[in-house]
Amino acid sequence: xxxxxxxxxxxxxxxxxxxxxxxxxxxxxxxxxxxxxxxxxxxxxxxxxxxxxxxxxxxxxxxxxxxxxxxxxxxxxxxxxxxxxxxxxxxxxxxxxxxxxxxxxxxxxxxxxxxxxxxxxxxxxxxxxxxxxxxxxxxxxxxxxxxxxxxxxxxxxxxxxxxxxxxxxxxxxxxxxxxxxxxxxxxxxxxxxxxxxxxxxxxxxxxxxxxxxxxxxxxxxxxxxxxxxxxxxxxxxxxxxxxxxxxxxxxxxxxxxxxxxxxxxxxxxxxxxxxxxxxxxxxxxxxxxxxxxxxxxxxxxxxxxxxxxxxxxxxxxxxxxxxxxxxxxxxxxxxxxxxxxxxxxxxxxxxxxxxxxxxxxxxxxxxxxxxxxxxxxxxxxxxxxxxxxxxxxxxxxxxxxxxxxxxxxxxxxxxxxxxxxxxxxxxxxxxxxxxxxxx
Length: 439
Description:
Layout: E1 13-19, H1 23-36, H2 46-49, H3 65-68, E2 77-82, H4 89-96, H5 101-106, H6 108-112, H7 140-157, E3 160-167, H8 184-192, H9 200-210, E4 215-217, H10 227-236, E5 239-242, H11 249-262, E6 266-276, H12 279-284, H13 287-305, H14 311-314, E7 318-325, E8 332-342, E9 348-358, H15 359-379, E10 384-385, H16 408-422, H17 433-437
Parallel strand pairs: 1-2, 1-3, 3-4, 4-5, 5-10, 6-7
Antiparallel strand pairs: 6-8, 8-9
Helix pairs in contact: 1-4, 1-15, 7-8, 7-9, 8-10, 9-10, 11-13
């Protein structure tokens, strides 16, 4: 096994900072508090409910992940947030409609105690959202410094030993990396000049990295995945990960596509459409924000199916994705997929999927796992891009020159083997060596 540094203690409070305090963030916070009070289980969370096999099957060692690795406990978590809408946690959760009032009312006292700080926000980047709880500054560097001050103050006031930051804000308009993103010096000069290619989420990511706070991006927009912040995170020893939480329709694609490919079944077309009516749906009704999400969703199948390697099966695949804002549906998203597949001797078949899901219910356990795993990474001396957390993202953040792995099952294996390595255990390769031990 490769040696790694000892994992530092998980003792003390862990502050979870949340840019964006809408449906996903409030559902996450409420769910953690519900679990702490014994009102609900943290279903969907690997850190809380998943086991991990160690050694040979005959050894029958399958502890919970949280029993193998020293993770922060739920009781250690404290929450901070930023949002342009000043609603406290209870008001925001009620407005989001993701959780029943019976759940929220039981925790109203706690949820009201979490109030969002003024946000770094501008309508140029999220056009379908607005609010009065916004920071003022002469430049984007002023705004970055204000965020850094927020981070330091929160750490001190809440008595946090460590912090992590998970972007739960809305999808910003589509941006590509440019000159301002090449080096940290160029990025900081861009902040001072309020370069329009620097979005609010990038300012949060910069503030986190500069304050030594691990950062994950739950939206598809460009945020920390460019050279300036990648190099800064590496140099400062800060773990970063992203991007775009893998929840509904794309989750199903990364489950189904590997299975079809494993059987060498062809795919002629994959048509996907969604309806949702929450704040995210309203934001994505703007074409420039949708472009950001579309790029994230469209890349999944190409990387899983490898059409260059299997042109007869996937070379002519037609892949279409649509998202439709439909207010009556609220946070209950519905995704329809029509998949035209090809079998033996070229005979056509079809698969239809109708996934009636709850967007924030699927995203909340991802936020929890990322918070705990990023804190683990930091305490383990891991720094820079954390590709082993690709399991949670539509557009996994990988090192320059590498293609992202989208196959959910390969991602899951990589995540668990990383945990085994951190614990000093052997990776599981499924080579069948146990069979030969009996010979």
